[in-house]
Amino acid sequence: SPIEIKEFMTNTFAILEVSANRKHIDFQLSSPEELYMEGDEDRLRQIFVNLLSNAIAYTPEGGKVEVDITVTELDMIRISISDTGIGIPEKDLPRIFERFYRVDKARSRGSGGTGLGLSIVKHLVELHKGTITVESKVGQGTTFTLELPQIH
Ligand code: ATP
Ligand code: MG
Question: CB within 6 Å of ligand 1 — which residues?
């Protein structure tokens, strides 16, 4: 059934609000209008909970996480999730969607992850006929950009 993205993202934010508040991380959402996509609600939830939890986990106290929703020329919904976190070194970027890949065991020790999150995210995005890309600068932050088909 159709899922309205803005409402969906707002509800997904709410799930993670406590952990964001604990680190005084500011959440911001911008979306132009009501946009709909077809998909499985639980799987879509898993995609965005994973990406937003990463953004919170890898962003220091007082940072910012921003979700920006737009429509592309090819009528895809583009969702970018940006943080002001520690960033990902360029040499690691090609591998972060691999299963169990974590950038640096020492730096991510505290967060207790398994390195599975992004491999699941990529798989689920592809199941929805979408794409996911990443841009990052060490010490400045990371942006994940998803494109998913829009329905009218
Ligand atoms: P989990 O399986 O619990 O999600 P994880 O967070 O370590 O564990 P992934 O979500 O797959 O695993 O992420 C892989 C690695 O990519 C992380 O260990 C981290 O090094 C890096 N990473 C992911 N998202 C970000 C981000 N927003 N900012 C900085 N580094 C990130
Ligand atoms: Mg993760």
Answer: 50, 54-55, 58, 83, 85-88, 96, 101-103, 108, 113-118, 142
